[in-house]
Amino acid sequence: MTALATQTNLRLGPIELDVPVVLAPMAGITNTAFRRLCREYGAGLYVSEMITSRALVERTSKTMRLIGHHESETPRSIQLYGVDPATMREAVTMLVAENLADHIDMNFGCPVPKVTRKGGGAALPWKSDLFRDIVGAAVKAAGDVPVTVKMRKGIDEKHLTFIDAARAAEDAGVAAVALHARTSSQFYSGHADWSAIGELKEAITSIPVLGNGDIWSAEDAIRMVDETGADGVVVGRGCLGRPWLFGDLAAAFRARAAGDDPFAQETARPSLGDVADALRRHAALLAEFFGDEEHACRDIRKHVGWYFKGYPVGGQLRTRLSVVTSLAELDDLLGTLDPTIEYPGADVEGPRGRAGSPKRTVLPEGWLDSRELAAKHRGELVEGEADTTGG
């Protein structure tokens, strides 16, 4: 059966994407090497690792490297984290004045204790006045550069913030809002509540609403959009070790737009040789990014398990790959694989990355007493931003 043609472009201010797909910022993952690799397979918007606004203003060497983009990357997208409106304004002003970004995303979804215990990340939207001030400062400083917001449902099921925060962001002039449909206390455990994305789409009508959570395949992405009415998807853990997912997503959304059946599209079925080639390409891009082959090999180690999930790669070889120190050594090890081994099927699919378990979100003392920011918390916020160097 042929589906009705559906608009598939996603517009964020002056930026128009031909497929509504965004790579989610992931600490230690979405550096320029991984972004370039994913672009080679598909289309969409590819966002940097989380950058701390204070570190950016201070121009730390690590931060300046992380905000760098290869000449092939366009549009250039940077995610900022911050808890102080003045520092956020200064950081955005810097990015715009120095032409360092075409799109700025703001992180209000990080559940990591070192961030939330200082009132940042997923904890921050609870303080509605602070949230409005930070988003407003960023949008004003950005001018014509589109600003988007990524958030979670709230701190926990008793302290949900996503509807009122999205409305505040919409009023401030953001170009889109993205919802990871879990609470902070869920971390990455359980299942994403896609119904919350649908609820948000009904509440927010003037800007795009993007959905995030449990997209492991192109079929998942299409189902999310069909079930929730979301204007696009944000993909995180599903692409770990699977950069070709972005090709699957592009094909499915383009088919949907043309009125064809998106579920009938052929998806990537990489052989073991194809996977090895992708890992090797990733390592080479990392070497270019770091300017240090040994550093690149240390970084690629964490990707080995994701790339070879479900493939018949023995434990001894996996162990040797996990301590590789040079590209030549990597080539030797990959050369021992049988490249003709075909795609294993279901064992490769499904969840990947650490899910963790539900846990109480660590918050500043008395944080939940009021939706307004108390004077006693202001100093903790500034201190917290100084302690959070990205990631």
Characterize the structure shown.
With 391 residues, the protein is an alpha/beta fold. It is 40% helix and 12% strand. The chain has an eight-stranded parallel beta barrel with strand order 3-4-5-6-7-8-9-10, surrounded by seven helices. A two-stranded antiparallel ribbon has the order 1-2. α9 links the parallel β9 and β10. The model is unreliable at 1-5 (pLDDT under 50).
Compact summary:
The protein is an alpha/beta fold and about 400 residues long. It is about 40% helix and about 10% strand. It has two domains: about 10-265 and about 355-385, TIM Barrel; about 270-345.
Average pLDDT over all residues: 94
Strand order within the widest beta sheet: 3-4-5-6-7-8-9-10
Distance between the termini: 45 Å
Shape: globular
Rg, nearest Å: 21 Å
Itemize the secondary structure elements and their pairings.
Elements: E1 10-12, E2 15-17, E3 21-23, H1 32-41, E4 45-52, H2 53-57, H3 61-66, E5 77-81, H4 85-97, E6 103-108, H5 113-116, H6 128-142, E7 147-152, H7 162-172, E8 176-180, H8 194-203, E9 209-212, H9 218-228, E10 232-235, H10 245-258, H11 272-290, H12 293-300, H13 304-307, H14 315-321, H15 327-334, H16 375-387
Parallel strand pairs: 3-4, 3-10, 4-5, 5-6, 6-7, 7-8, 8-9, 9-10
Antiparallel strand pairs: 1-2
Helix pairs in contact: 1-11, 4-6, 6-7, 9-10, 11-12, 11-15
Key phrases:
about 400 residues, alpha/beta, 2 domains, 8-stranded parallel barrel, 16 helices, about 10% strand, disordered N terminus
